[in-house]
Amino acid sequence: MRGHRRQRCELSQTDSGSDSEESDTETMRCISCKEVYGRCDAGTCKECYEEASETEDELKREIEDLKAKVAFLRFCSPFDHHVSPPSSAIRSPPAPGFTDVVLVAASDAASIDSLLPVPAHKAVLVSRSPVFKAMLENEMEESRSGTIKITDVSYDALRAFVNYLYTAEACLDEQMAYDLLVLAEKYQVKHLKAHCEKFLVSKLNWDNSIMSYAFAHQHNAKHVLEASLSLITDNMDKLTKKEEYMELVEKDPRLVVEIYEAYLSRQVNTAAPKDSSTKP
Amino acid sequence: MRGHRRQRCELSQTDSGSDSEESDTETMRCISCKEVYGRCDAGTCKECYEEASETEDELKREIEDLKAKVAFLRFCSPFDHHVSPPSSAIRSPPAPGFTDVVLVAASDAASIDSLLPVPAHKAVLVSRSPVFKAMLENEMEESRSGTIKITDVSYDALRAFVNYLYTAEACLDEQMAYDLLVLAEKYQVKHLKAHCEKFLVSKLNWDNSIMSYAFAHQHNAKHVLEASLSLITDNMDKLTKKEEYMELVEKDPRLVVEIYEAYLSRQVNTAAPKDSSTKP
């Protein structure tokens, strides 16, 4: 592929004549943005440009292939059967979708929501979560009864959770990301956890930093923890004035200690070269 | 993003001095391959090079994300349960994997193979194939009996077919690609059909061109059909000497006519400009 094929110059000589005044700065025209550039702004030669374009095309083709694969592997959500109107008059009874288990949001407050079961396939749950796998393959209570009770979760979050197990898709806002991350951690659905963490890191700001930090600590969300801790230690001067800070000192002072330890460790690391020079 | 930031030139002036003899050809050094290039080999400026690199990095990240999604959505194949040794002593009976249907390769010759059932989940079959969907959701014989008989297929091909429905993966050789394409066409599994067609097109050569052409015709494989027809019409001088050609004339002369029609149409199209000039 490499090895310079010297192509015939497409630029006319009159073109170079007009640039004669700045001939010592040596200008060329960029094949991409069409602007003239000088020696110090040189990017690539034509051959490397073409190779890079080919690589980009190959990557785009790979993306298309992977997207098609995702579309193929996405599972029909069991909700599709309930939501969509019957597509054919022949199919008179609503299609059951062959579900063989239901999940129930068993919150303490017995709202109407908590009575709505979320249908699912054991095979899908087992395929996505090692916790469901252990639960359903080992003849535990849930396997026998065909009902999995999940506490401390809303019906909406549970439904979004099950939907993610089928489709790898979730429509997130911050609350939903928190709820789904808790479920993902509990049932060891790593892909969903990473998805929620990514979303929460993107939504991180000074206002929600301490809350995010405490949440990340509680639910073992390492990326959120790192990002929030970094944001907090960047703004130590404002920290003690925050209401959430006072609350955290009251509620979980150990976490506050960890903030100070991280801050201290950063300071020591920054000062390290000076420190070592003072030692004998 | 655009708009030239003129960076300080990193090349020393002594460098340009050594090139003074060819100052009218104007040379630069490629940031990628490090070779010197002239005006006619100019690719991009530095800024466009950096933008292209960023794009490439973004595409690569997208590919990583999609690969993780595919890995998440890939379904446990029902064979995994049968092949792998029991992972835990507690789980004494082999895990059923909650399969609720079996597929059987019901070939005419009652070999031992044809007796081996391939277990599967109705939900997976329904999710991947509109034909299985109609069959299983409409209380047809197969749904009631829990057994789907598939004729004219080997056990290995059937197993590979079911495995693809779970994983979007198949280990292909030419024979397997032919077998799976037939099943993919029959059960309308487009993703698998495209996969097989791509493989068969990549394996196309003069020796298998007529066989591929006839096969593609029979099973509605458009990409294989186009590619094989193009290969055949590129080599019309050798065509009539081929044994497969004689066989096709015997067996299905209509297909041979289509080869000649395609060849003629190609000739007419190539000659079109001359043709039109002779008309009044």
From TrEMBL, chains A, B:
* Domain BTB per the UniProt entry, residue ranges: 99-174
Pathway where this protein functions: Protein modification; protein ubiquitination
Q: Which InterPro entries match?
A: BTB/POZ_dom (IPR000210), SKP1/BTB/POZ_sf (IPR011333)
Region: Disordered; residue ranges are: 1-24
Q: Which domain of life is it from?
A: Eukaryota
Q: What name goes with this protein?
A: BTB domain-containing protein
